[in-house]
Amino acid sequence: TIRLGYANCRICRCVDAGCAPPACFVMASGDSAGGRLPSCAACGQATRVVRRISFVDCPGHAELMATMISGASVFDAGLLVAASNVPCPSPQAAAHVAALAVAGAPLAGKIALVQSK
């Protein structure tokens, strides 16, 4: 597919400083600034947004690279997930890494090898 997938979520934390992690965190869907936030699952108090996260499924098709590059300017970081059954980096993966580097997003690397049985 060449469709661009996109979703948002908000990570909220209990307003009670005595409420201990990780139970003090709860997720809220969407990106609505005025939307209702969930209560703390541990103590029932109100929560506040501490982090907004966007998930972008951006295939490496040339038709979508302009969209990805324009969006990369607002990324704080990126996570590249590539198929383990093809040579890496694929041309698409290399293009995405280059776009993130140009946008100034921090780049970190981790490779997990998948072994066949």
From TrEMBL:
Tell me what this protein is called: Tr-type G domain-containing protein
Q: Which GO terms describe its molecular function?
A: GTP binding; GTPase activity; translation initiation factor activity; tRNA binding
Every Tr-type G domain range: 51-100
The record's Gene Ontology biological-process terms are:
formation of translation preinitiation complex
Q: Which organism is it from?
A: Zooxanthella nutricula
Provide GO CC annotations from the record.
cytosol
The record's InterPro entries line, in alphabetical order, gives: eIF2G, P-loop_NTPase, T_Tr_GTP-bd_dom
Q: Which domain of life is it from?
A: Eukaryota
Q: Which UniProt keywords apply?
A: GTP-binding, Nucleotide-binding, Protein biosynthesis
